[in-house]
UniProtKB/TrEMBL annotation:
Residues 195-408 form the Calcineurin-like phosphoesterase domain. The keyword rRNA-binding does not apply. Residues 1-26 form the signal peptide. The keyword Glycoprotein applies. This is Purple acid phosphatase. InterPro entries: Calcineurin-like_PHP, Metallo-depent_PP-like, MPP_PAP, PAPs-like, PAPs_C, PAPs_N, Purple_acid_Pase-like_N. It is an enzyme of class 3 (hydrolase). Keywords: Glycoprotein, Hydrolase, Signal, Zinc. Residues 476-515 form the Purple acid phosphatase C-terminal domain. It comes from Glycine max. Its EC number is 3.1.3.2.
Length: 587
């Protein structure tokens, strides 16, 4: 009788828990792209929040230099390949003033000691070092020369393995404290990074700190940085408060000067993250930084190691890499993107080489969005879209991440401004927190439609035109939120991509104001690949596959099966526990 009573009570408890699990799953139902296309939703800017915040001063504890002499700082990781990792850092002191003299980059060595056990370094990697200068041949403008920037590639690493490392110059000796990183699993349809953080237009403001603190709390395994990193060209040369409108603050400036020590402050600001997880970057317009002799992008090109050569690219402005079963393509919006150019040829070759049976997910990123319903930067990079969109659609890119617009927006699947279930999901995350404040005006708001002469790109041509088809035919702007814009909100934040398997990936956008709220999200959706629909015939890039009732039906079935699998796994866990308990009672 005691045995029966114990068993029955346990069984009843299991049934109650099963019921609670089912109810919880039902209450937290997360939509999928199979449920789309979605009716457009706009969440307006919360007037109780500030649209922006001031730049952090260079004396801020997270920006000032905290090492002495030639000890490493600004340590950062970047993926080279599944079996190799870049380690970068800076030593020595930068100089800024009217007269600066570059130091000898060979005066400090570039070494990385590493191994699989803490304190036991079985291998040593050596690399290169370099310095760069930012020079202005105008009276009163300050010049800059960097500290020594080191890059070392660690080769022959094992996938899915933790390594401990120190970097620096052992002959001085000046080695860093111990850090560690974990290599990603071998490319496979069954292996994926745990969480990939996506940020754009970060800067160095109080809002930036909220973004990074929130991101760090979400424990990412990689950072995808989609351009406009430091906003060094928005910071006053004399220090102090940043200028949200540079041309307004300095109408007579002969060149857009940049305060290069902001790059050093930014490297220190990011080091707690980048010394242990890889950060993959792509350039934005704030990285152009023109100087004497027509030189541009000097800081970006010198400070960051990217797998350009490893991916067959001859330029650090565009490259690709694998992270488990995801193939990432990083494109340059501020270098030649025409179909007759080197970047386009490289992109086509790279897409042709992707084996979707090994890396099912294909994710692209660049700075300036093609699909954007905000007034800011509206249709600014239409020329790039006209050159490249068809190629990306032809090879069935799954997701595209952009920045540039200082707000959040997620699109319905779209191709050539037409809803298409095989088009990419475009997501704009230019809401990192920079000095230029959050964008709040939409191109479809009354009186907010830009003219064709507005939003001229800093690189490339102008291809703006009225829509030739669809509900906005004959107009430059829609009179309501476009059908391809699924959700938009004017808030600062960041995103997390969690690929579940070869067809499901969970995308979550986190708002800064939700930082201390438990389980709060600004936007969340499962992005679902449909290879059986979209990969069956790729010969005709113009083929349109409209949404229909069968797609909707499969949505309900697939999503139900996913929810059921979650429930079953939870129930099995509960049954296992109570099975053990009943065995104990039986004995």
């Amino acid at each position: 009788m005691k045995i029966c009573t114990t068993f029955c009570v346990s069984l009843a408890t299991v049934l109650v828990m099963m019921s609670n699990i089912v109810m919880a799953v039902a209450e937290t139902h997360i939509p999928t792209t199979l449920d789309g296309p979605f009716d457009p939703v706009t969440r307006r800017f919360d007037p109780s929040l500030r649209r922006g915040s001031d730049d952090l001063p260079m004396t801020h504890p997270r920006l000032r230099k905290n090492v002495t002499s030639n000890f490493p700082e600004q340590i950062a990781l970047a993926i080279s390949s599944p079996t190799s990792m870049w380690v970068s850092w800076v030593t020595g002191d930068a100089q800024i003033g009217l007269n600066v003299t570059p130091v000898d980059p060979a005066s400090v060595g570039s070494e990385v000691w590493y191994g699989k056990k803490s304190g036991k370094y079985t291998s040593v990697g050596k690399g290169d070092s370099v310095v760069y200068s930012q020079l202005y041949p105008f009276e009163g403008l300050w010049n800059y020369t960097s500290g020594i920037i080191h890059h070392v590639k660690l080769k022959g690493l094992e996938p899915g393995t933790r390594y401990y490392y120190k970097c620096g110059d052992s002959s001085i000796p000046a080695m860093s404290q111990e850090h560690y990183f974990e290599t990603f699993p071998k490319p496979s349809p069954n292996n994926y990074p745990a969480r990939i953080a996506v940020i754009g237009d970060l800067g160095l403001t109080s809002n930036s700190t909220s973004t990074i603190d929130h991101l760090n709390y979400n424990d990412p395994s990689m950072i995808l940085m989609v351009g406009d990193l430091t906003y060094a060209n928005q910071y006053l040369t004399t220090g102090g408060k940043g200028a949200s409108c540079y041309s307004c603050a300095f109408p007579d400036a002969p060149i857009r000067e940049t305060y290069q020590p902001r790059w050093d402050g930014w490297g220190r600001f990011m080091e707690p993250l980048t010394s242990e997880i890889p950060m993959m970057v792509i350039e934005g317009n704030h990285e152009i930084e023109p100087q004497a002799g027509g030189i541009t992008f000097k800081s970006y090109l010198t400070r960051f190691a990217v797998p350009a050569e490893e991916s067959g690219s001859k330029s650090n402005f565009y490259y690709s890499f694998d992270a488990g079963g995801i193939h990432f393509i990083m494109l340059g919006a501020y270098v030649d993107y025409n179909s007759t150019g080197a970047q386009f040829a490289w992109l086509k070759k790279d897409l042709q080489s992707v084996d979707r049976s090994v890396t099912p997910w294909l994710v692209a990123a660049w700075h300036s969005p093609w699909y954007n319903s905000y007034a800011s930067h509206y249709q600014e990079f239409e020329c790039m879209r006209l050159e490249m969109e068809e190629l990306l659609f032809r090879y069935r890119v799954d997701i595209v991440f952009d920045g540039h617009v200082h707000a959040y927006e997620r699109m319905n699947r779209v191709f050539n401004y037409t809803l298409d279930p095989c088009g990419p999901v475009y997501i704009t995350v230019g809401d990192g927190g920079n000095i230029e404040k959050v964008d709040v005006d939409h191109a479809d708001d009354p009186g907010k439609c830009p003219s064709a002469g507005d939003n001229i790109p800093e690189f490339g041509g102008v291809c703006k035109s009225n829509f030739s088809t669809g509900p906005a035919k004959g107009n430059f702007c829609w009179n309501k939120q476009p059908e391809w814009s699924a959700f938009r909100e004017s808030s600062f934040g960041h995103g997390i991509l969690e690929v579940v398997n070869s067809t499901y990936a969970l995308w979550t956008w986190h708002r800064n104001q939700d930082n201390y709220k438990e389980n709060a999200v600004g936007d969340q959706i499962y992005i679902v690949r449909q290879p059986e629909l979209c990969m069956k015939d790729l010969k005709d890039p113009h083929q349109s596959l409209p949404y229909n009732s069968s797609t909707k039906s499969s949505s309900a079935i697939n999503h139900l099966s996913q929810d059921v699998s979650i429930i079953i796994s939870q129930i099995l866990g509960v049954l296992f526990i109570y099975g053990l308990l009943s065995q104990v009672e039986w004995s």
